[in-house]
Amino acid sequence: MKRPTSGEPWTLLIPKNTGVGGVVGGGQGARGLLNHAVLGYVVNPSNPPPTPPITLAGTPLLFTTDRDGVLVNGVRVVGKEYKFSDGVVYILESPLPIVEATNNNNNKNNKNASPTQTPTQPETSTVTTTRVPPLTHRFKSSRGGGDVRRPDPNTRSSRLASRPVLQPVLGDEPLTLAEADGFQETEFPGETVAGSGSGAPFEELEGSAVPPVREDQPFLQSFLSYMEEGTADEGAEFLHHFKNANITHRFRGTGRYTALVPSDAAFYSYYPIDWGFNPFLVQNFTRDVLADHFIRGNINLADLPSLAELTTLGGKTIKFTRKRNKLLANGVEVTLESEVPLSRGRVYTINQLLFVDNDRVFELQAQYGDLETAPLLGNPWPASQFLSHLLGWTEEEPRTSHFAEYLNLTNLAYLVPGHDENLDPLKYTAFIPTDEAVRGYLYADAPDPFLLDMTLRNHLVLGHLVPGRLYNTHLTSGTTLTSLDNTTLIVTHDKDGEVLVGGARVLGKQTFLYNLGNVFLIDHILGITDQDILKTINKYPSQPFSGSIQEGEKGTIFPQVDAPEPVPAPTTLPPQRPTTTTTTRPTLPHQPLTFPPTPTTSTTTTPPPPSPTSPRIRFETRTEISISRRVNDGALEPLDNSS
Fold first, then answer.
1. pLDDT in tens, 66-79
2. What is the C-alpha to C-alpha distance for residues 613 and 328, in angstroms, rounded to an integer?
3. Where is pLDDT greater, at 565 or 598?
4. DSSP helix, strand, coil percent of the chain (3-state; round to 5)
5. Number of DSSP helices (H) and strands (E) in the chain, helices first
6. What angle (nearest 5°) sits at the alpha carbon of residue 288, between those of residues 286 and 291?
7. In angstroms, rounded to a whole number, what is the distance separating the alpha carbons of residues 533 and 424?
8. Residue 1 pLDDT
9. Weakest-pLDDT range from 11-25, 123-137, 391-405, 510-524
């Protein structure tokens, strides 16, 4: 006999091998197989048809997505799809349960019925609430008399595995397993629950005090209208974040939902007062938090049993418990008196945020420190908060003490403003050379050129600041940067993958300087050449040595020159006043230090002039007193008072 065939498009949903037994067995037989076939559709889960397709067994299919992928009636789609010329095959994690369609137009016995027919029912004037199954609790008595022994709370041996419950029905719209996530019949030992019982039917949860509401518009439209009208005592902050979060695509037009709206004070408790970290500036975090305050289904929470678990729009589970006649959602009190019925749903008020705590906020702060508002500093440069905070950062960082000293001597706030002419904030990136990099430009026998010359010092600071906030991901090879002193910096990568900016190696990742900019450490000075250093040293031949250079430091400009053996000076000096004391000292092979005359009652001898090519020698300690000064041999040399 020739078997009947069909030329219509088709979709097959095939469970994995581990779940095939649940299709063939369990009393389903051939109908279980038909429940995984759709005729008339080639379903695309990312763009499902507006009307849920019906399997050959009469089960409506609802395709949804979450963070982990696609679900069909709550069953995960795994693996890749297999496309054919007129159909497609998807692999499921487990079999699909058979759910009867709620509209007689799709009766499977009607052979003339088209799979593409849309079931319709007239709108009613009453609220249709979600049927929530009570959680079944069984008890085990250890002895006669009905005494109940509570098991050890640290063990879970007596807790039975969760299993999906029967399909709740939402009036004219069947609630599929994807939308009934969390409606689970879970058995907990040793606790009595009102309305529980292994054989109790699933009752419709009707609120007697809830007035009828027409379901003539989607829930989302009704919810936003209610919140925007200002009739709600609370929820202004929730509405503000909801409008900016862009999560409206998660709501289905025919879906039913229950909203738990936190009070404004719940948000205020996480807002910084003047400065600090605001976790709701992290967009992904805010979207997840808002979605987790909507429950799938129009549920009258007042009629919930003393223990229930419901699934949020974001995929998390809210555990409802009762304590002292109060309903708690994850330990947060739900104000049942605040219930407001809406089209296809209802709204309740809670006094705290769900799934948000200080530990989570601290994690976000460490990860998104660039969103933290900086405290306002009144000094040293109020007009440039970036420079002011950069100075504090370099002073605290033990590897950048030289740069901190140079920055502290500048006054460049007018070149690094915090806002433009339109009062839009300006961000910056600093590439700070380490102390080791700076010491490579200094040498022991000359003063610090960056302390001597203001022009060179300003050039150093501005040459390491780049407009705009840069991250590691921005430092791609070939990128051209321009510093604030118009120095061009080319980003390159070496063979080891290390990042180089202007030839200087970037040491590690960026450091967030609040929301003002980022800081990188580098191993070389940018934009300063050996000629710049030499030119500056020659401009100030008679300046005293800087106290920031340590004894033994060797520069990169001049070669190290060993000092010749000292030549003894004459042991006597020309006659002076009778009270003058004479001192013998060796001839120094370097340019003597010069100081302005200081009034005193003593005189000094004039040392022989050194050779012009003799290097200067820097000694670690030098003290000055009013009548004499200490030199390298430890002798006291009186100061000249002849003037």
1. 878 888 888 888 87
2. 87
3. 565
4. 20, 20, 60
5. 13, 26
6. 110
7. 38
8. 44
9. 123-137
The answer to whether 66 and 315 are in contact (CB under 8 A) is yes
Structure tokens at 276: 């600090």
State the DSSP H helix or E strand holding residue 339, giving kind and residue range, or none if neither.
Answer: strand 332-342
Q: Is the peptide bond before 97 cis (omega within 30 degrees of 0)?
A: no
Please, which residues have CB within 8 angstroms of residue 27's CB and are 6 or more apart in sequence? none
- How many CA atoms, within 13 angstroms, populate the side-chain half-sphere of residue 640? 9
- The region that residue 40 occupies, defined by phi over 0 for left and psi between -120 and 50 for alpha, beta otherwise, is left
Count the Cβ atoms, other than its own, within 10 Å of residue 426. Answer: 16
* pTM of the predicted protein model: 0.52
- Side-chain half-sphere of 518: how many Cα atoms within 13 Å? 19
**222 close to 264: Cβ distance less than 8 angstroms:** no
In DSSP terms, which residues pair with 309 in a beta bridge? 319
One DSSP character per residue, 128-179 reads ---B-PPPP----BSSTTSPBPPPPTT--TTPPPP-B-PPPEETTEE--TTT
DSSP sequence for 271-298:
S-SSSB--GGGSHHHHHHHHHTTEEES-
What does each C-alpha distance from 453 to 456, 510, 534, 536 come to in angstroms? 5, 30, 12, 7
